[in-house]
Design a protein that fits this description.
single chain; LeuE-type; mainly alpha; globular
């Protein structure tokens, strides 16, 4: 019963965390509109793997080392900033969608590489140092120190599955034809808005401090 209560407490807080719009959401939105449902779902899966990565080193105690080392925190942070800004500028500079792209089904379009989508999701999430502090504070507050590591990893697995399911739902919603066509019709403006959003998240990450 103790483990069930711990898991439910973690999921209650984590549910609020995952639905809050951020860089991950912006990337999933763009993948959904530009590449379609399957690439977006694969990108979300990559973010789920990244979450397990964060949880794993938090359980091993490495998260505490990162949170206490200004140099390590800064290295991860600036790598994340550069990646988000790169994605934003790339999006901002892309031309608007062509009309013929609206009428081509997902099966007829050249699919995005599964590995590339997984990597995009993993890197976007992994290079954000804020989850280090989030999971460190979450586990130290809601999980007893004598809870076995394997049980804690099970908590992380459940949280990763919740993240993947959430972003799969987001991917499905934004690839419903009327919704997706509306975004595609915005053409170049969609690219500029998502590009500016990603750059904005990069700037916000650049301003973050290890003590925030």
């Amino acid at each position: 019963m103790q483990y069930v209560l711990e898991f439910l407490g973690l999921m209650a807080v984590f549910s609020i965390f995952i639905v809050a719009p951020g860089a991950d959401f912006a990337v999933i939105l763009r993948q959904s509109i530009v590449h379609g449902r399957r690439p977006a779902v694969m990108t979300g899966l990559g973010m789920g793997f990244s979450l397990l990565f964060h949880v794993s080193y938090t359980i091993l105690g490495l998260g505490l080392i990162v949170s206490k080392s200004l140099m390590l925190f800064s290295l991860i942070k600036w790598a994340g900033v550069l990646y988000l800004v790169y994605l934003g500028i790339k999006s901002f500079r892309e031309p608007g969608f062509k009309v013929k792209e609206i009428d081509i089904s997902d099966e007829d379009r050249k699919p995005a590489s599964v590995w590339r989508c997984l990597a995009t999701g993993f890197i976007t999430n992994a290079l954000n140092p804020k989850p280090v502090l989030f999971f460190l504070s979450l586990f130290s507050t809601l999980v007893r120190h004598d809870t076995p590591a394997m049980i804690q990893f099970g908590y992380g697995l459940g949280m990763a599955m919740a993240l993947v399911v959430w972003f799969a739902g987001v991917s499905v919603f934004f690839t419903v034809k009327p919704v997706r066509d509306r975004f595609i019709a915005s053409g170049k403006w969609f690219n500029r808005i998502t590009g500016a959003a990603l750059v904005g998240f990069g700037i916000r990450l650049a301003l973050a401090r290890a003590t925030d």
